[in-house]
Amino acid sequence: MIRLSAAPAVVAARERERERERERAHDHGPGPVPVATVPEPAPQSGRQAVTGIADRLRAAPLTLALLGLLWTVGAATGSLAGGPSRGLLAHIGVGLPTLGEGRWWTPFTSLLWCSSAGSYVFTSLLLLLVGPAAESRLGRRRTLLVLVGGQVLGTLLGTGLVAFGSRAGEQWTLAVADQTATGPVVGLFALAGVLGYRLTVLWRRRLHLLVVLVPLVMTLYVGHLQSVQRSAGALLGLGIGALLARRRWQLRPHRSSHTETRVLVALCLVAAALGPLVASLYDNAAGPFNTFSELYFSHRLSPDEVADFCAMSAHDCARAHAVERIFDTPARLMAALFPALLLVLAEGLRRGLRLAWRITVATELLWAALLLWLFAGTGTGAGDVVQYFVEALLLPLLTTGLLLATRHRFGLRLPAAVLRRLALVTGGAALAAAAAYVGFGRLVAGEFDPRAGVGGLVAGLPAQFLPPAYNDLLPDYPIAVGPPARLLETYCGLAFWVVALTALLVAFRRPVVHADAEDAARARALLTAHGGGTLSFITTWDGNHYWFDEEGRAAVAYRVLSTVALTTGDPFGEPEARRRAVAGFARYCDTRGWTPCFYSVTPETSDAAGQLGWRSLQVAEDTVVALPGLAFTGRKWQDIRTALNKAGKQGITAEWWAYHDAPLALRDQIRSISEEWVSEKGLPEMGFTLGGLEELDDPAVRLLVAVDGDRVVHGLTSWMPVYEDGVPVGWTLDFMRRRSDGFRGVTEFLIASAALGFKEEGARFVSLSGAPLARSGQDAPPTGLQRTLDWMGRVLEPVYGFRSLLAFKAKFQPEYRPLYMAYPDPAALPSITRAIGKAYLPHLTAAQGVRLMRRLSS
Predict the structure, then answer these.
(1) Which residues, in sequence order, are CB contacts of 539 under 8 Å at separation 6+?
(2) Helix (H) or strand (E) holding 259
(3) Which residues, 6+ apart, have CB-to-CB distance to 485 below 8 Å?
(4) Whole-number Å distance between alpha carbons of 209 and 221
(5) Residues 765 and 759: beta-carbon distance below 8 Å
(6) Following CA atoms 211, 217, 223, 228 in sequence, which dihedral angle do they give, to the nearest 10 degrees?
(7) How far apart are CA 457 and CA 51, in angstroms?
(8) What pLDDT, on the 0 to 100 scale, is given for residue 371?
(9) For a Cys staple, 368 with which of 102, 149, 396, 813, CB 3.0–4.6 Å?
(10) H or E segment at 737?
(11) Distance (Å) of CA 202 to CA 212, 256, 676, 687
(12) Which residues have CB under 8 Å from 140's CB, separation 6+?
């Protein structure tokens, strides 16, 4: 971490300012200008961590009381090891049998017991996780009411759903209709659902997803009564929380950022992968999605199943014993092949990789095709179609639908070298495993039954690469009976999948790169060596392509939208080559049938375009603050001094970080603040010249974070370098967020602190960046098109606040520098306008477009 500290000259200046303030007859501000200084936070020791947990529990007496009551009752009735006895369960458990016999008290008494030792541990951990947070945010009385109310209503609703399904003839509900359940987890899921509405948008969304997914997966795969009751409790908690929410924004859906959407989709895939694994732990799992769960997670054949195969033929008997042997060797890991693959793919989806998206969609479609093939080959009666196939098809179809609906969020690409290495490793592993099985198998042909020829060994290859459950779906092939053949059977397929999944995971963990990685590296080197404008660093962002002049001394970053080549700022490179780059890029576009448009460029680029007969108009205004003479003195700096002084009084300091090196807790708060900001807009996060979370993760970008004494982040700003001769001579503000309930003057505090820090380092200026569709200068008479853009700025103000942003930056007494759009042909303005809109809002859906129009017209 780089700490922001006051240099001696700055300290002396502040002391002189303090004396002047004291001598004045009237006060222009609350005191001197502090520059935040914060020591490196010491690593938290184990004793401090334990102390923190103990303090948190001491502040949650209700949680401790409930936890003690649960274990005391369990110990007193001998229920800790294996749950309540059958006789006791008939009087305290809730279900159709007990409620049907008039035991109305069972929804209450089920709170005080758990079904097993593992359930006691799980319930205790969940209570310790949810209880203290609920007591802190909801209050003890409301926490108790929600817990008990959610338990009672959730158990009744879940039991009622099972009764309804049983009467409707649903087979899996018939299988659990005679069960009774105990445990306060139903109420805890309801409490977690209510608690989520008191958290930030980021954690509210994640907690609510988990509150729904965990019991839902248990219901769909395990299908026990307690799983249905927990799902009902979770839904009740979400409903109760919505009713208790006092602000309307809590009741409407919140849009998530691209990063968070990827996390949520990955969590859904993890749930789909873990469901069959969880169900395998239960001997009597009967959930509707569990019908073909063995094709996801293979199970050992029972003695009766082996006997059935042996009754068919000697060859079937040998195959059954071969499958049974697999579970006594390391090859038993193949039983969890598909869950392992989905978990690896979930990591790729979390990172937004297009490759992971494509493989996941292909896997889900292949799974659906397999189920349809099984249905076509079994001749199942119409009455069993819903039970055995429609329910099983729901999962892959829903997963595929979710992936298709969010496909635009998974556009990041791996480097070409990584893809080539991945293809080489996986292809080589597959070839090596197949060659080993066939080649060495031919050498020990007598160790197979029947004796193996090349054709028979090739026919047996699918069995080596698929989980054991697929064995009886494959054609006949030679069965390994001797030790050498069994060795091949055990390790060939397993070795391939270990290599393939490891290579895939390593590839997914590689840094994503620009679409034109080599050109991007060349462009960054040119930018670093020679520099450009204040916005030139955005040319390094993903999504740009690059044009270089013949000598490689200047470059233009652009993106093609329809037939418009829209540039990202000015040309950059050697100063004398930049002006010539305008004409060179125009010729380059002309040969390809594109309409060039230089967007957000300085007057120098606009003048160079004017010499080609192009037109230009102002589209934004840059705000630049000179640093050498910067001093926050006088009446015009009153707001800045107030923010700095209030921050000092409240113990808020500023810390410099590189996003990648920041502590996990700090990055998590940054994501949470950003998610809250995005969700409040209700519209997509803008891109193009406006950065987001993904643009923070660059070693050259510096992050200034405002934190209080409890390490709570109140706001943050990010700063992009402006290079000259290989070193930064200025910094441009990009990402700017503040906590909604944090320190009100945090943005002024952060910008002022950054300016003082950069001044101390010797930088010449800071740019507060441009505000699109906003300008301060109105001296020249506007053209008709300029008046249209001014009108658009006024219309968009309630949604994106560009003009308010420009007015805010006026507090720092900046120099205003116009930014222009230069274009060759007025007839192309409609297509240029569409291209700019697509660049800023590439993921705008039809529904969001309608919502935007409604907000603009209101």
Answers:
(1) 523, 527, 532, 546, 555, 557, 568, 569, 572
(2) helix 258-279
(3) 441, 444, 447, 448, 452
(4) 18
(5) no
(6) 20
(7) 63
(8) 79
(9) 396
(10) strand 727-738
(11) 16, 8, 7, 20
(12) 61, 62
Can you give the pLDDT at residue 322? 81
Nearest to 345 by CA among 504, 498, 163, 215: 504
Do 720 and 538 touch, CB atoms closer than 8 A? yes
Give yes or no for a contact between 733 and 704, defined as CB atoms under 8 angstroms apart: no
Q: Are 573 and 581 in contact (CB under 8 A)?
A: yes
Supply 759's token pair: 């001044």
pLDDT of amino acid 10: 34
Which residue stretches of the chain have pLDDT < 50?
Answer: 1-46, 248-252, 774, 784-786, 791, 795, 797-798, 800, 856-858
Orientation angle between helical segments 61-76 and 117-138, nearest 10 degrees: 160
Distance CA 341, CA 330 (A): 18
Distance CA 475, CA 463 (A): 9
Q: How far apart are CA 86 and CA 423, in angstroms?
A: 58
pLDDT in tens, 793-806: 554 544 545 556 66
Return the structure tokens found at 326: 């697999």
| Phi, psi (degrees; rounded to nearest 5) at 599 | -115, 140
Picking from 714, 596, 613, 628, the residue whose alpha carbon sits closest to that of residue 666 is 714
DSSP 824: S
Chain centroid to CA 52? 29
Q: To 10 degrees, what angle do helices 46-58 and 61-76 make?
A: 90
**Strand partners of residue 765:** 626, 730
pLDDT at 764: 94
What pLDDT is attached to residue 412?
80
Mind giving me the DSSP string for 163-179? HHHHHTT-HHHHHHTT-
Q: What structural domains and CATH numbers belong to the chain? A: 1-32+622-817 (3.40.630.30), 59-254 (1.20.1540.10), 293-509 (no CATH), 517-613 (no CATH)
663's tokens = 């502590």
2: β partners: 656
Residue ranges with strand state E in 451-594: 479-480, 545-548, 554-561, 564-567, 572-573
Alpha carbon of 568 to those of 276, 412, 466, 541, 609: distances in Å? 49, 20, 49, 10, 15
State the number of CA atoms in the 13 A half-sphere of 202 facing the CB.
19
Distance CA 284, CA 400 (A): 29
